[in-house]
Write a sequence for this structure.
């Protein structure tokens, strides 16, 4: 069993209104040293696979076909052996 963590964020060229609002709120709290905020999501998948490479391929297929809107979003996959 493998655990895949898929981190999905808006592409740098896409405006992130939620991140902008959060950044403004943080500045209002006195956290002026924060320069930018981008909001994303993390999805965890438990995958039955023979090895890490096959688990990665399953997570990649899921990301490209359903989890991420690849027109607007980038994704990053981390796979680890579940204990």
């Amino acid at each position: 069993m493998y655990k895949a963590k898929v981190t999905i964020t808006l592409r740098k060229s896409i405006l992130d209104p939620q991140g902008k609002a959060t950044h403004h709120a943080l500045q209002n709290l006195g956290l002026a040293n924060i320069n930018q905020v981008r909001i994303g999501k993390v999805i965890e998948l438990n995958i039955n696979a023979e090895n890490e490479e096959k688990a990665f391929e399953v997570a990649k297929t899921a990301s490209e076909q359903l989890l991420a809107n690849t027109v607007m979003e980038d994704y990053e996959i981390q796979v680890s052996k579940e204990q």
Notes: The chain has one domain: 2-81.
